[in-house]
Amino acid sequence: MIKVGIVGAGMVAGTHVRALQDLQDIATVVGVHARNTERLTRFCEAHRLQAAVTLDDLFDRGVDALIVLTPPNARREIVARAAEASKHVLLEKPIERNTENATELVELCERAGVTLGVVFQNRFRESSQKLLSFLAEKRFGELASAQALVPWWRPQSYYDEPGRGTYARDGGGVLISQAIHTLDLLQVFTGPVASVQAMAGTTKLHRMEAEDFVAGGVMFASGAIGAVVATTASYPGQAETIVLDYETASVRLQSGVLEINHHDGRTERFGEPSGTGGGADPMAFPHHWHAAALRDFLEAIRDGGQPVVTGREGLKVHRLIDALVTSARLGKRVEIAG
């Protein structure tokens, strides 16, 4: 049985607890640590878990792995101490605030020989897995173009929380905090992005430091062309969509549903619609995808393997996000190093 410690008691912590309740065959939660002691106490009482006042308290309980749910700017010391103590680490997205800082954490864990995983739960949806199996078979031919749309909504009260939507705490706005999941999934299907040209800004609907709207043109390493649009200023918020146009079919992935329109007139549908957290309630989505991501990570620890989303794998979307932000700031096309 793998002993797990949770670090952080914010919005997504409840989702992880529910996911871990589904994984009692492989893991047990030995404690929760958070800097805000009042929030920690309320959270542990609500979920009947043991509070750990310090990180040392978790280590003293023989924890094997930490699930780190803190804001991005609060992670380096936690990851460093876990690596030094030979504890495996699973990070909620993003890894850190930018590619440089994220790479530092990845390399830190690699040097220590501990497993580092990143939570990109949308990869584990039934529809995502089905599409990946079709693409492995090259069922639709070569990719011609791709589109990723994230038309989400967040009220101003969301950004009124201290630090939210700032570069110092979060590393940015809609790209790194919301659209990161869709951008990660996009590259899983398409392969790496070679270059981008983007525009970004903050609309009149929000008072925040970072961007709440980004539009970018994308060139993939495969030669395909595409576009991404991401915002948290589209009321009331809709599910994110990925559209992929191949030689023999057009593929649409939305709300957990995969729709395939073949050029010969056939249509196929897989998966079931579900909430994605795109509206005013960021947590309006099921915990089952997190459970699948956590199981993958825990089984990798148990079996001495690697999770689907390693730290190195997680860096790919960081490089794309940094390129989009840089392109918008400089007003020119930006190449992405492989």
From TrEMBL:
Chain segments annotated as transmembrane: none
Superkingdom, natural source: Bacteria
GO molecular function: nucleotide binding
Record-linked SUPFAM superfamilies: Glyceraldehyde-3-phosphate dehydrogenase-like, C-terminal domain, NAD(P)-binding Rossmann-fold domains
InterPro entries: Gfo/Idh/MocA-like_OxRdtase_N, Gfo/Idh/MocA_Oxidoreductase, GFO_IDH_MocA-like_dom, NAD(P)-bd_dom_sf
Domain Gfo/Idh/MocA-like oxidoreductase N-terminal, residue spans: 2-118
GFO/IDH/MocA-like oxidoreductase domain boundaries: 130-248
Protein's name according to its UniProt entry: Gfo/Idh/MocA family oxidoreductase
Lineage start: Bacteria, Pseudomonadati, Pseudomonadota, Alphaproteobacteria, Hyphomicrobiales
